Amino acid sequence: MIYMDNAATTKLSAEALEAMLPFLKNSYGNPGAIYDLGLEARRAVAGAREAIARTIGAHPSEIYFTGGGTEADNWAIQSAAGSAMSFAGLHMITTSFEHHAVLNTCRWLEKFGCGVSYVNPDASGYVEAGEIERQIRNDTSLVSVMLVNNELGTVQPVTDVGKAAHDRGIMFHVDAVAAYGHIPIDVNAMNIDMMSVSAHKFGGPKGAGFLYVNEKYKPVPLIHGGAQEQGRRGGTENVAGIAGMAAAALREHRNMDVNLKKRHKLDRYFINRLNEYNLSVTHEGLKPAEGRGWIYLNGMCRKDMPLVTACAEDEERDRLPGIFSLTVSGMNAEELIVRLGMEGICISAGAACASSDTGGSHVLKALGLGDREIGSSVRISMNEDNTEEEIDNFFKALKSLL
After folding, report:
1. Which of 115, 109, 155 is closest to 137 using CA atoms?
2. Which of the residues are catalytic?
3. Which of 218, 239, 254 finishes a domain?
4. Quick check: 284 pLDDT over 90?
């Protein structure tokens, strides 16, 4: 099997599994208990909180464990809005190509009178900090911008956006689900007040995540119950999931520089193979996009790219390597994904949580792509475990199917 859908989920790392097993078998105590079995679980949760805090330059008390990124996004946005009685008269700013966990929460708040401004990215998949700043009003209470777009890999200027928000006394939230564990994050240097993370995007288990909240803020309780998470998220802690998440986080941060170099190398190889493919392939009945070739990249770099060209070395920092959005001229994306799947190659049409959305990718719509282009677009998401041989086999299978 060739797995090229790492933006949807990643393989559980060996370190995460090893950290989880004791709490799935013998150390099954409730962290709230005061006998040894419970204290062992409590120490594991506390240790995980400290480890994760170190990876982003935070204090352990600023880390709140959740059931994943979607919960963390919901919690952050609703906390900024305050109680349900105070939604009316508030204003928030986000982008039109955020994850649905952010967009649908904002749309829900709009039903209660909260105003939301949705800023569009440019055609390359970037949001300008100045455009966010121009949307700020006197009643703006929150700005929310993702760090890395999960369909394009483009890295947004969150440091500049956060500064613009702070200059006006506005809280700044970042969805870092696609970024954490893959690129360095310092919440203080990047002006981040709240940040959402999900474990299964970096080798941790599904069903675990965390929300960072700057100590000067306290999130409103999302789940009412016991005293867990400083009394703000009731429910017995997922000890195994939390331990596995921390182990995966430490592994990814320890290997981050090496992994990024591997992914940049794979990126260049992928683009070179794509160029070769466009130059060598002819298909009866299919017409390549004018000036672009049979397959072209969406949201690649901060420049006009009429032809498929590799980013310059100094531009690689503007995107997370390994994620490609490809439009395949004249092909139905869903059929292509199914047929490649039958060949043992796993790719997707975009975010897994939106796979049943018949309207197509909202991210590509935000870039200005039409329905036909969106219907012919797929996402490739590789990590450091992928190989050049797998890329060769992908293009070989693609050529055969087309």
Report:
1. 115
2. 353
3. 254
4. no
